[in-house]
Structure formats: C-alpha cells, structure tokens
C-alpha cells in the first residue's frame, strides 16, 4: 500500500484535545521506561533532552520525573498542542526543568550547549518529507547524543489499518479513530526509514518493528 500523507500539524483545537484526552498511559510509560533502559548513563548529571513533536506534554513530564536531573526542551510546531502542554506542565514539580518551544523542524538551529539525547514520539508519520526529521537531528545534536524515535508503521493494506483501529481504539471518540486510521496510512515502513537514515548518513541507528503498529529508531550519533 502506498503512503497517504496527512497534515503535518494538529492545529485544530478539537483535534489536539481529542489526542490529549486519549489513553496513551501504557504507550507513553513504555516509551520512557525503554528509553531509560537503553540509555542508563542519562540518569547522571544534568543532561539536556530534546523532545521533537512533544504534543500535549505528557512525555516531557514523564522524562523529567524519571530523570530528576534532566532538563527537557519540548518542541512542537502546533500552537494548539503547545497550549495543552503548557496547561499540563504548569504547576508541576518538574515545571522549572521543562522548556516549551513552538517551532518547526526546519526552523531548529544548532546551539552551543550540547544536546545529550533527542527523543520523538509519533512525529515522523506527520511529516510530508520524512528526511526532515533526520536532518534536524543531525543539525542540533552532535556525536555521542542518544536518539530514540518511536512512530507508527504503515500496515500492508487499508483493511489491516481498519483492523488495528478497531483493536486498539474501539472505545475512543470518532475524531481520534479517524486520526489514528489516517496516521497509519501516512506512516512509513521500517524499510523506508532505513533508506532515509542511510541517505542522511545515520545508518548506524537501528530500526526495529516493536509492535504490530510501531517502529523504533534508536542508537547513538
């Protein structure tokens, strides 16, 4: 099945709210736990983590809680999403260690302070041009930075996409089920991601199919 791109940004407040209200407890908790397992050295010191496509802010909060010394710069191009993230972070004990930034990947600039890790969850499938993510990571993170990117992977057919939505989102609102289905159709396959990484000179990063609907890119630059 060919890829069917979707809009890059969740700019509509209703769409952003439906995503924020969905039950991603198990997925997000697993994301942070596996990140910690793969990169245990980040538990020491005051590492700077960059979360690309932070959405409503749940993962930046979880990262800051799991790594008490870490600082998290959480970036999203959607104002609607960042408004929800601000509400989530406001008043939290970790608030002083989380910086929210409204910016697209293309606008990210290199900085003088070293980035110790780049994480991203469910951003890649939104991009019209997938290599934009890998080019941004190369631009802002230097050698030794950890990379942990989780995303959907495209199923073999529309029928299989519908089955996945029915299995994992049957009780969710119609808006979220529609977005989930469209996101599955817009996702890349592991083979496509490996090709993108090779073209970007990042073929040292590993690509894994970690579930019937997710892929993971992980490693060290």
TrEMBL record:
Pfam families: Methyltransf_25. It comes from the Bacteria. Transmembrane segments: none annotated. InterPro entries: Methyltransf_25 (IPR041698), SAM-dependent_MTases_sf (IPR029063). The keyword Transferase applies. The keyword Nucleotide-binding does not apply. SUPFAM superfamilies: S-adenosyl-L-methionine-dependent methyltransferases. Keywords: Transferase. Residues 50-143 form the Methyltransferase domain. PANTHER family: TRANS-ACONITATE 2-METHYLTRANSFERASE-RELATED. This is Trans-aconitate 2-methyltransferase. It comes from Thiohalorhabdus methylotrophus.
């Amino acid at each position: 099945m060919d890829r069917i791109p979707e809009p890059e940004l969740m700019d509509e407040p209703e769409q952003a709210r439906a995503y924020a209200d969905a039950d991603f407890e198990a997925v997000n908790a697993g994301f942070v736990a596996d990140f910690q397992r793969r990169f245990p050295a980040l538990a020491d010191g005051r590492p700077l983590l960059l979360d690309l496509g932070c959405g409503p802010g749940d993962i930046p909060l979880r990262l800051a809680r799991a790594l008490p010394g870490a600082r998290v710069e959480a970036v999203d191009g959607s104002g609607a999403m960042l408004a929800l993230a601000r509400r989530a972070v406001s008043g939290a004990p970790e608030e002083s260690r989380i910086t929210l930034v409204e910016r697209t990947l293309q606008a990210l600039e290199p900085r003088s302070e070293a980035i110790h890790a780049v994480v991203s969850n469910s951003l890649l499938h939104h991009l019209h041009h997938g290599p934009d993510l890998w080019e941004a990571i190369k631009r802002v993170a230097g050698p030794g930075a950890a990379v942990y990117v989780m995303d959907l992977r495209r199923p073999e057919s529309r029928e299989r996409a519908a089955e996945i939505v029915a299995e994992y989102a049957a009780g969710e609102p119609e808006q979220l089920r529609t977005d989930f289905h469209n996101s599955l159709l817009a996702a890349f396959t592991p083979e496509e991601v490996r090709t993108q990484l090779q073209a970007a000179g990042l073929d040292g990063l590993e690509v894994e199919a970690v579930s019937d609907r997710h892929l993971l890119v992980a490693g060290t630059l």
